[in-house]
Every structure is written in structure tokens, then in C-alpha cells.
TrEMBL record:
GO terms for biological process: carbohydrate metabolic process; glycoprotein catabolic process. Gene3D superfamilies: Galactose-binding domain-like, Immunoglobulins. Keywords: Glycosidase, Hydrolase. This is Glycoside hydrolase family 2 immunoglobulin-like beta-sandwich domain-containing protein.
Amino acid sequence: MASSFSWDWGPAFPTEGIWKPIGIEAFDKLVIRDITVETTPNQRNNSFWDLTVHIKMESAPNQEFEGIFDIKLDNNVIINKDKLKFKTDGQGYAGVAFIILLRNIKITPWYPNGVADNTQKLYDLNVELSFADSKEVSTQTKKIGFRTIKLIQNPVKPEGLTFYFEVNSKPFFA
């Protein structure tokens, strides 16, 4: 018996219409659309972390802007760039990346549940873009964690490999 795309006697109806919150957004300058973050231990000093922040912005195509970035980690200012110039591409997007060495902030590493001291510490990373010639501000906040993860595969006999993970140098099996 054919009945829509459900498995039983009744039909299954796909979602139709508005199903998420809607709104109207207006801006004259740039708006931050996305932030991606990479956290890696510093190669020279393992108690420091390198934070790479990629920021994707949107505005009208082929426009030049001069903006001021303020980046905070749990309300600690980690970068304040005055008058950074950039230009949107033909589709209205611009991007910028910052590589930041965190050395004056004590970082608590993130661990999976049940591993080490069982902390799932997440930090608020806040990126704010403002302009000297305007009161317009664009802000975005993300929750981030600091951790390293490795897949460990050592040879074992007869002809095989171990398979487990290390998070922040602590072994665990998943």
C-alpha cells in the first residue's frame, strides 16, 4: 500500500511554512555572520595556548571599511585592533583572521565526562566590530573549549593496532 513516504498506514507530512524565529535585520556597515575558532597549545610553551579566530562578515558588495575589533575571552580583553581596513568581495563578504597568544590567562582544559578531573569548562569568546564614523556595532559570542585530542594506534601482535584516544594527554576509550 502506498501512503506518502511513511512506513505505516498513515501519511507523513513534511514541515511546511515558517518553523524558526523570523526577524528583519538592517545595517549600514558590516555585520558579523560567523566566527570559527581553533585552539592549539603553544609549541614553545605548553602552558600557553594559541587562539586562531576567523571572522566572516557581510555587507554590500565591493565596499571598503575601516573597523575596530574588540575580542574578549570571558570578559578579559585579549585583542583590540584599532582601525583595521578591509574590503568586501563581489558578493558582499569579507573575512579577517587573528592569531592570538594567550599567556596571561589561566586556561582550564576541557575534558569529556568521566575523564581526568571531569571538567567541561567552556569559555565565552565575544567578538565586537565597531566603527569610528558610526554608532553601529556588530557582536557575536561563541562558547569554546581548550583541548587536544589524539587517536592512538600502536602495533600489537598478532597483526593489529590499538585504538584509543588521548584528550589533553589523558587516555580514554570511546
